[in-house]
Design brief:
Layout (H helix, E strand, L loop, with lengths): L15 E4 L5 E6 L5 H9 L3 H8 L8 H8 L6 E8 L2 E11 L12 E8 L8 H15 L4 E6 L4 H8 L5 E6 L2 E7 L4 H23 L3 E5 L8 H11 L5 E5 L9 E2 L2 E4 L11 E4 L6 H11 L3 E4 L9 H16 L3 E3 L5 E4 L6 E4 L7 E8 L2 H12 L11 E6 L8 H10 L5 E6 L5 H12 L4 E5 L20 H10 L3 E3 L2 H13 L7 E6 L2 H13 L3 E2 L3 E2 L6 H13 L5 E6 L6 H18 L5 E5 L3 H7 L49 E2 L2 H21 L13 H12 L5 E2 L2 H9 L8 E3 L3 H11 L3 E5 L13 E5 L2 H15 L2 H4 L1 E5 L5 E10 L3 E8 L2 H4 L4 E5 L4 H9 L18 H17 L3 E11 L4 E3 L2 E5 L17
Helix pairs in contact: 6-11, 8-9, 11-12, 12-13, 14-19, 15-19, 16-17, 17-18, 22-23, 26-27
Length: about 950
């Protein structure tokens, strides 16, 4: 602990777990006086060369004075951080505040000298880069704005750490030493570097779990049955290509194998490295297993064991201890309470899960927080008959259980680079870090489709076992923000699989124009109606009649695909009496061959009880999504053929062999399901095109950013959070070019008359009491009062209906030009970040929830799409002969509000209501602004894993 002479208490909030470049983890924490022995031991393990680079001279050991200096810090002017694994130091960094001449200084001096030392065994793991991010964040917190470092020219590794950090630097050379100086404020480049390092590290950490060279199943039962023995059998039967071990402390010493797998009593007894341990022992024994694994150098754990946060408060504490213990050894965890992981790559063939069969290899990645849903997803994709039919394989599968450590964000990082995954399907019950998930989802969706269904949407709380930060945003808003990031948001598991199969098998459509053809007029009309419901533009269905042959289907599909006015084709088919399997196979081949001739347009089949046709349409070929014209999607070629996996006849009909590389055509048992999937593909393709040109955030010369900052600082000096008064609100908004229509208080009829004379007739009289504000339907507003007589009469009516003026809080406001009443809101959510919302004022927003949302900062393209995204948007653009509103003025208002909140995160809430948008210009008639210290931005700070 720190001594009484230290100026600050131990800063526990500086402690953090980080993922290193190779996927392992380390603990970063402040160095204290209790670390003297650790520091000496650490220094003894550093090479003479590294010591020379640190001290510019031979320095074989630390003196007692050195140890005292390097362990006694005031956590303000002198700070030291250490990276630890297993409780031992692997690297250190420190800064000392300096003055103009380089001498020790105190605040307000804003420069510090920084120095690193990394054990040679851990160099190249990105430890110094991670420590630099954390020491820079600490320095900014303590008022330091610049770092200086002196480095020997031969110390190229450390020079590279500073050079690659992305900060603005100044470099000089004097007396044989390179001096580097750089500011610590995050820049676009430093954030890009940080995100790139985060991506590489987290992707690598998942790769180590999914591609292990050796696996130990800890808790393998001595007799058949049980979880551990089952998982051991699943790994063995899948043909795992690495080394497999069975571990159980109860094995007799003479037992050397079980089910043909080497058997050991402890992980420590295994002769050789173990990359992954699958833990199935009871929760009470897990800590001992984790310690064994950590000491043996195991890289990661899949904890199948339940009884953690899923079992209540005591279990949550056990879960926190589990995560802390595993991370202290540099290990990451999937689980606890996990269903397991699967990798179908021929180089791995790992089925470390409770799934009794290995899924077929394919190009779809699956992530599920629920084991039950994971089973449903694997089953749905595996079977050929019923539901969504056809063979589409899986690349990797992760069931995270309680999601204590590895989360969907980590798996997204892995999938983004994974050449074996073309489509990502995710079932999420909670999103622990929505801001980060949105960032990663946007990047992933620009390269490959990401389809998400979110469970527990309306429960109001996260499922047991999930530690998530609270969000004040309703689910509909979070869903809209995910769609803005390119996520294909669906509501059910059925929709998840339906959309995934289409995106995995077919190219992206170039537009919403759909051709419909088939041998059933009724089924064609149902498909036509479904297309209209999904916002697509269907052509009249082509009825081939029930007498249509396979050749007729081939000719009709070929013509439809060749038509330049068609972007996609839906084929409807009903059984042909008497033809059976042969007819199904002929029709399937006819459709495949026609589709293959035009590979840039998607084809879907709606079938009615045609198991044979759906099966025949399935093909063992690549599921890579191919780009349609103008989508910007990469062209995907055929991949390796999928293997036929035997299953019980009741679950899976016999496989139908089709030519390798044949084009896959998804088949659906209902028109609505097929068209819904097509609608999602059309919307996603449009997002891809739009994402190629996201627009820009405009600059406005009349914005007074500095004046607004000073004004906000002055207001916040009064307290931690406050809602501004009318005058302050108008002044602050005015600095960003947002003019609020002047309103004057009218506590008496005479005051109302005086206000009207000052503003000029005609005027409006409004009650601003909370229960009457923005409720014109209750009669609390009187408009177009042309003179004093009408104003006094209106005043009397309001007080007679609703009570005394003190209760009504009446105001007088000049009349604004007639238009459409709208509402603009901005809020900073602690989890999702800053969000801008727009809708029509009144019932559309309050009753129907018809609001559209965008993440701040909003670009000009975002603003344009925002006002057109609400269902009632036609009211703004000349519905039923009305005059269109000034959309340009409305978009500019949205952009100015976005700039205000983005420039000043202390502005945590803004409401403009109503905003009356006229054919020429607009009027902001009401406004409120709330200020508070902004929520912490974890995306701007150093890389950290969620704390436990």
């Amino acid at each position: 602990m720190q001594t009484s002479s230290d100026r600050h208490e131990y800063p526990a909030h500086w402690e953090a777990d980080v993922v290193l470049r190779d996927g392992g983890t380390a603990r970063v924490r402040p160095i204290t006086v209790d670390d003297a022995e650790r520091l000496v031991s650490f220094y003894e393990q550093v090479s003479d060369e590294s010591k020379y680079y640190r001290f510019f001279a031979p320095y074989p050991r630390l003196s007692a004075k050195d140890v005292h200096r390097f362990t006694h810090h005031d956590f303000v002017d002198r700070v030291g951080l250490a990276a630890t694994i297993g409780g031992e130091f692997i690297a250190t960094v420190r800064y000392d505040r300096i003055g103009a001449g380089g001498t020790p200084a105190t605040s307000p001096a804003d420069e510090a000298e920084v120095a690193f030392l990394v054990q040679d065994a851990h160099q190249g793991r990105g430890v110094a880069s991670a420590l630099l991010e954390h020491i820079a964040a600490v320095a900014r917190e303590r008022g330091i704005r610049r770092f200086a470092a002196e480095v020997l020219p031969a110390n190229t590794k450390m020079i590279k750490v500073f050079r690659d950090a992305g900060y603005t630097q100044k470099r000089s050379f004097e007396d044989g030493v390179v001096r580097l100086e750089f500011g610590l404020e995050p820049t676009d480049r430093s954030l890009a570097v940080q995100y790139a390092r985060e991506h590489r590290a987290e992707a690598r950490s998942v790769q180590r779990l999914l591609q292990p060279g050796s696996v130990a199943v800890v808790g393998t039962g001595r007799t058949p049955g049980g979880v551990g023995r089952s998982i051991l059998g699943n790994i063995r039967d899948a043909g795992y290509t690495g080394r497999l071990y069975a571990v159980n402390s109860a094995f007799p010493e003479e037992r050397k194998e079980i089910d043909g797998v080497p058997a050991c009593r402890s992980v420590r007894d295994i002769d050789g490295p173990v990359d992954l341990a699958v833990v199935t022992v009871p929760a009470a024994h897990v800590p001992d297993v984790v310690a064994e694994c950590g000491e043996h150098g195991v890289q990661g754990l899949v904890v199948i064991t339940a009884g953690y946060a899923d079992s209540g408060p005591e279990g949550r504490e056990r879960q926190r201890a589990l995560v802390r213990q595993a991370r202290s050894y540099g290990m990451r965890i999937i689980g606890p309470n996990a269903f397991g992981i699967i990798n179908t790559s021929p180089e791995v063939r790992l089925n470390a899960s409770l799934a009794p069969e290995m899924p077929r290899p394919g190009r779809i990645g699956l992530f599920a927080q629920s084991g039950a849903i994971g089973i449903a997803l694997l089953s749905r994709l595996h079977r050929r008959g019923g539901g969504v039919t056809g063979v589409t394989g899986v690349s990797t599968f992760v069931s995270s259980g309680n999601r204590a450590d590895v989360s969907g964000n980590d798996v997204l990082q892995y999938w983004y680079d994974d050449p074996e995954t073309d489509v990502a399907l995710m079932y999420l019950e909670s999103i622990g870090n929505p801001r980060k998930f949105t960032r990663l989802a946007r990047r992933t969706a620009a390269a490959k489709p990401l389809v998400v269904v979110q469970g527990a949407r309306h429960g109001g709380v996260a499922p047991q076992g999930h530690a998530v930060r609270a969000t004040r945003l309703p689910h509909a808003t979070v869903s809209a923000l995910l769609r803005q990031a390119g996520v294909i948001r669906v509501d059910t598991i059925t929709d998840l699989v339906d959309a995934g199969l289409l995106l995995a098998r077919q190219p992206l459509p170039a537009g919403p124009r759909v051709a419909i053809l088939g041998n059933s007029e009724s089924l064609g009309l149902l498909t036509y109606d479904a297309c209209l419901s999904e916002g697509l533009r269907p052509q009249p269905p082509l009825d081939l009649t029930t007498a249509a042959s396979a050749d007729d289907f081939h000719a009709a599909l070929s013509r439809a695909l060749a038509d330049d006015t068609c972007d996609a084709v839906v084929v409807t088919a009903i059984p042909t009496v008497g033809e059976g399997a042969a007819g199904d196979a002929a029709l399937a081949e006819a459709l495949r061959s026609a589709a293959a001739a035009v590979p840039t347009k998607p084809v879907l089949v709606v079938h009615v009880e045609l198991g044979g046709l759906a099966q025949a349409l399935s093909a063992a070929a690549s599921t890579a999504p191919q780009a349609g014209p103008g989508t910007g999607a990469p062209q995907g070629g055929p991949g390796p053929a999928e293997e036929t996996v035997p299953a019980a006849p009741a679950q899976q009909p016999p496989a139908v062999r089709v030519p390798e590389g044949a084009r896959l055509i998804p088949a659906y048992p209902a028109a609505e399901r097929a068209v819904r999937a097509l609608g999602e593909a059309v919307a996603y393709a449009q997002w891809r095109r739009d994402a190629a040109d996201p627009g820009k955030v405009p600059e406005y010369e009349d914005i007074d950013e500095k004046g607004a900052a000073e004004q906000i600082a002055g207001y916040l000096a009064r307290g931690q959070g406050l809602t501004l008064g009318t005058r302050e609100t108008c002044e602050l908004l005015g600095r960003y070019g947002v003019r609020v229509h002047r309103a004057l208080p009218a506590p008496t009829p005479d005051d109302a008359v005086a206000a009207a004379q000052a503003l000029g007739y005609p005027v409006a009289l409004k009650a601003t009491a909370p229960h009457l504000r923005h409720r014109a339907d209750l009669g609390g507003v009187r408009l177009d009062l042309a003179d004093e007589e009408q104003l006094r009469r209106a005043y009397a009516e309001l007080t007679e209906l609703f009570g005394k003026p003190a209760e009504l809080r009446p105001v007088v406001q000049g009349m604004a030009p007639r238009g459409v009443d709208t509402v603009v809101r901005a809020v900073i959510d602690p989890a999702a970040g800053a969000v801008l919302s727009f809708g029509l004022a009144g019932a559309a927003t309050q009753l129907l929830g018809d609001m559209a949302h965008r993440l701040i900062p909003v670009t000009d393209r975002d603003a344009t799409s925002l006002i057109r995204s609400i269902r009632t948007a036609p009211l703004l653009f000349g519905w039923r002969g009305s005059a269109p509103v000034d959309a340009a003025a409305l978009e500019e208002l949205l952009l100015r509000v976005s700039r205000l909140v983005d420039d000043h995160p202390e502005v945590v809430a803004v409401t403009l209501e109503p905003v009356v948008v006229a054919p020429h210009g607009l009027s902001v008639l009401g406004a409120s602004v709330r200020l508070a210290p902004p929520p912490a931005r974890d995306d701007l700070g150093p890389r950290t894993l969620p704390a436990y």
